[in-house]
Amino acid sequence: MPGVHKNPTISFRISDYERREIEAKIKASGMMKKDYFIRSCIYNHVCVVGKKETVHVLVKELQKMQQNLRQLHNQFILENIQMTSAEMQELQLDYEYMLKAILWMLEGAQYLWEGKNTAGKESDKHGGSES
Question: Residues with Cβ < 8 Å from 121, sequence gap 6 or more?
């Protein structure tokens, strides 16, 4: 039968703040929303694996942020601000959540560059490299 789902649906209400932060993390993860929620609920941990597609989405988001900030900067210089205070607050919140999500993802991938630094520190402890 069309329109009939075999699996139950789970839904809950969240604040606008929570929704924005969750959606920023989902976008940074590169996962489908459903997969993100399932992994988060079942395992209490979401492991994000850096893929070309994931990084591309983040780069696009950062480029959009950069363009918007340049426009806003020019408006400040010309003293011709076209955004209301409320719109600036919304923009600030959106950027804050996206940057927090990107930092969250980078912290999860920290092992990629920490291993290299740790290896260098270990050789220093043992008198440097051997010839």
Answer: none
Tokens of 125: 């402890």
Tokens of 11: 């839904």
Going 51 to 57 to 62 to 67, the CA torsion angle's sign is: positive
pLDDT-flagged residues of the chain (< 50): 118-131
Q: Answer whether 98's CB lies under 8 Å from 23's CB.
A: no
Token pair in block for residue 8: 């139950």
Going from N- to C-terminal start, the domains of the chain cover 16-106
Determine the pLDDT at residue 62: 86
Whether the predicted model's global pTM rises above the 0.70 cut: no
| Range list of H helices, the chain | 16-29, 33-43, 52-77, 85-108, 111-125
In this predicted structure, what is the pLDDT of residue 107? 74
Nearest CA to 30 among 56, 11, 66, 7? 56
Structure tokens at 65: 């942020």
Helix 16-29 vs helix 85-108: crossing angle, to nearest 10? 40
